[in-house]
Specification:
- By secondary structure, the protein is an all-beta fold.
- The protein has strands spanning about 10-15, 20-25, 30-35, 40-45, 50-55, 60-65, 70-75, 80-85, 90-95, 105.
- The strands form three sheets. A four-stranded antiparallel beta sheet has the order 1-2-3-4, with no helix packed on it. A four-stranded antiparallel beta sheet has the order 5-6-7-8, with no helix packed on it. It has a two-stranded antiparallel ribbon with strand order 9-10.
């Protein structure tokens, strides 16, 4: 299906070489073909999600939530691989290193 941002606004976007992951305001994650800009599939279980980033090297989606938890998902099937519980406030931003081995995150408090 074609990418439609009118149904639910985009909150955060993570992009790799050929895929784009869009976190929507309704908690859905769309996997988008970066060339054709069509939605390949949608994952629906992240109501508390606040932001995401994507590593095309490690094939992982890093998802921050309102409780300060970072969830690491396998991009192939959206399976939860790890959680990182180091923040006490909502995660506001995430980025992953180019080699997919390090994450930088910020929260609603200050760091």
């Amino acid at each position: 299906k074609s990418l439609d941002l009118k149904s639910a606004a985009a909150k955060s976007v993570g992009a790799g070489d050929d895929l784009i992951y869009v976190l929507r305001s309704n908690g859905e994650i769309d996997e988008v073909d970066a060339v054709e800009l069509t939605v390949k599939r949608t994952h629906k279980h992240h109501q508390d999600a606040t932001c995401l980033t994507y590593s095309s090297v490690s094939k992982q989606i890093w998802l921050g939530d309102k409780k300060g938890v970072i969830h690491v998902l396998a991009s192939e099937n959206f399976a939860l691989q790890h959680t990182i519980d180091k923040h006490t406030k909502a995660i506001t931003c995430l980025t992953v290193s180019l080699d997919g081995t390090k994450i930088a995150s910020g929260d609603a408090y200050r760091y």
